[in-house]
């Protein structure tokens, strides 16, 4: 029991019994060691504010305090059940009642035979037929080439030539009255072999292109020739070649002497060539405007040809192009050519050239001609040659006289309503065009086959290069054509530029 001992009036001392209380020994040494260990820390805290690390420590402590104070964000994932209606789509064959019971798939082979008809871009009507038949096992049919076969057959009706005045009048009702001599000449007229040759070239070209439908001659260009008739006047013996066709636009030709600048709208067109089959020696030192372009083209070809490692085919093509470019440049330097937008000329098929020794009706480059459309007749010459499988083309000069909307990209007449009259053997040689002289010569040649009917007049072309200050002199009646010694040059060699690039087709 504890006993209180009074020591004085203000304090009391509690004295516990000593029995049972252990006596501690060495306790003072432990606290001394703790104090000794903390002494360096206290010294560091005292010295630290006066050292370079004070600001770093401060920033670290501030950052630590901020992180401790930042409230903890606790995310809970709560799963919520949402009910949604889903639309179930049932596939139903087109044309079948949804409520009607769908038939089960067949259990055996069912033969099929289906037909379809369509028109492709070039006017060919394509009729396809799908036929299925029972075969043997797939492992065997896969090895048989006849088990998966497409057969293509092109059916073309080659037209017969028009050889009567009544049928020609159906196309142009002015013809009988405009050319009264036709009534006596057509009964004895012969269909020219050129008509059949051109259509044979058409069919051969199509035969060679059957594997490539995009290269097959289109419907319009296949039926571009109505007839070619060889006519002879029974009294005068004058001959003419009558061609009934359409009219495409020819833009070829260039002449530095008369026209030192050309319109890029024409010269940059896809099929433009600076040459025509009709040409004559230059008369001035003015260079052809297309000469720099061809010289640059030759330079590019020769640079490519010098590159090693080209294929055999490419090298062969480059050699041919270089040879052609060199001959073309030489021709541009020494000759002038017709200009399509200034000179009236027509184009014949290359299939019609080269037979004048055997056929008195064979045309030649330079022959005089007349073109008839509706109630108008225009004098011109045969100035160029085109592909062997086409017919019906004239210079831009004539095309725009017939149809003001004609251009390098738009033909003036699409229907077979243009009549071309060629006077074989009338070529007077190669010289610069004289449109007044052309008018006189064609007038005389028309008289040889019966002349023009009453009310019809041969068109007179104005000189496109004559300025307003120059006075135009009318040719005297009965003026004779130029004498042979005044003719500049004969027909150009066949291997010289002048024919279109595809003339050999």
Concise overview:
Helix content is 28%, strand content 17%.
Output the strand order for the largest sheet.
7-13-10-12-11-14
What gross morphology would you assign?
elongated
Beta-strand fraction estimate? 15-25%
Could you estimate the helical fraction of the residues in percent? 25-40%
**Compute the gyration radius: what is it?**
51 Å
How is the biggest beta sheet arranged? 6 strands, mixed, barrel
Give a description of the structure:
The structure is a single chain. This protein is of the alpha+beta class and about 500 residues long. It has a domain at about 165-485. The chain has helices at about 25-45, 55-70, 140, 165-170, 175-180, 180-185, 195-210, 220, 265, 290-305, 310-335, 395-400, 435-450; strands at about 5, 10-15, 110-120, 125-130, 190, 225-230, 240-250, 280, 335, 345-350, 370-375, 375-385, 395, 415-420. The strands form 4 sheets. A 6-stranded mixed β-barrel has the order 7-13-10-12-11-14. The protein has a two-stranded antiparallel ribbon with strand order 1-2. A hairpin with a 6-residue loop joins strand 6 (about 225-230) and strand 7 (about 240-250). Helix 10 packs antiparallel against helix 11 (about 310-335). It is elongated.
């Amino acid at each position: 029991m504890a006993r209180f001992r009074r020591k004085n009036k203000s304090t009391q001392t509690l004295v516990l019994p000593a029995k049972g209380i252990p006596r501690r020994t060495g306790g003072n040494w432990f606290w001394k060691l703790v104090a000794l260990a903390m002494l360096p820390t206290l010294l560091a805290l005292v010295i630290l504010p006066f050292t370079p690390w004070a600001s770093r420590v401060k920033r670290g402590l501030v950052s630590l305090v901020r992180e401790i104070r930042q409230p903890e964000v606790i995310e809970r994932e709560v799963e919520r059940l949402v009910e949604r209606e889903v639309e179930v789509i049932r596939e139903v064959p087109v044309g079948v009642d949804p409520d009607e019971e769908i038939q089960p798939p067949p259990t055996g082979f069912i033969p099929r035979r289906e037909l379809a008809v369509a028109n492709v871009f070039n006017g060919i009507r394509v009729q396809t037929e799908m036929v299925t038949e029972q075969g043997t096992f797939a492992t065997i049919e896969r090895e048989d080439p006849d088990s998966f076969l497409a057969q293509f057959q092109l059916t073309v009706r080659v037209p017969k030539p028009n050889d009567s005045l009544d049928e020609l009048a159906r196309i142009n009702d002015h013809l009988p009255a405009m050319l009264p001599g036709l009534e006596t000449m057509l009964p004895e007229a012969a269909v020219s072999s050129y008509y059949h040759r051109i259509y044979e070239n058409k069919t051969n070209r199509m035969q060679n292109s059957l594997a490539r439908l995009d290269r097959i001659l289109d419907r319009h260009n296949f039926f571009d020739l109505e007839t070619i008739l060889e006519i002879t006047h029974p009294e005068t013996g004058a001959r003419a070649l009558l061609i009934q066709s359409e009219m495409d636009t020819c833009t070829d030709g260039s002449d530095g002497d008369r026209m030192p600048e050309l319109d890029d709208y024409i010269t940059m067109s896809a099929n433009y060539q600076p040459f025509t089959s009709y040409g004559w020696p230059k008369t001035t030192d003015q260079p052809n405007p297309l000469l720099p372009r061809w010289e640059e083209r030759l330079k590019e070809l020769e640079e490519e040809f010098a590159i090693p490692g080209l294929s055999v085919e490419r090298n062969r093509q480059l050699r041919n192009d270089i040879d052609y470019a060199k001959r073309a440049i030489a021709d541009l330097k020494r000759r002038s050519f017709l200009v399509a937008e200034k000179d009236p000329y027509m184009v014949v098929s290359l299939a019609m050239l080269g037979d004048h020794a055997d056929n008195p009706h064979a045309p030649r480059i330079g022959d005089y001609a007349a073109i008839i459309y509706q109630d108008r007749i225009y004098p011109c010459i045969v100035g160029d040659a085109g592909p062997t499988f086409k017919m019906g083309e004239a210079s831009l000069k004539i095309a725009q006289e017939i149809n003001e909307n004609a251009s390098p990209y738009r033909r003036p007449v699409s229907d077979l309503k243009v009549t071309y009259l060629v006077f074989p053997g009338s070529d007077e040689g190669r010289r610069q065009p004289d449109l007044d002289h052309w008018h006189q010569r064609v007038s005389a040649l028309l008289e040889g086959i019966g002349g023009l009917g009453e009310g019809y007049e041969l068109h007179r072309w104005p000189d496109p290069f004559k300025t307003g200050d120059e006075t135009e002199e009318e040719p005297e009646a009965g003026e004779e054509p130029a004498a042979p010694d005044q003719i500049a040059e004969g027909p150009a060699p066949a291997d010289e530029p002048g024919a279109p690039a595809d003339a050999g087709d």
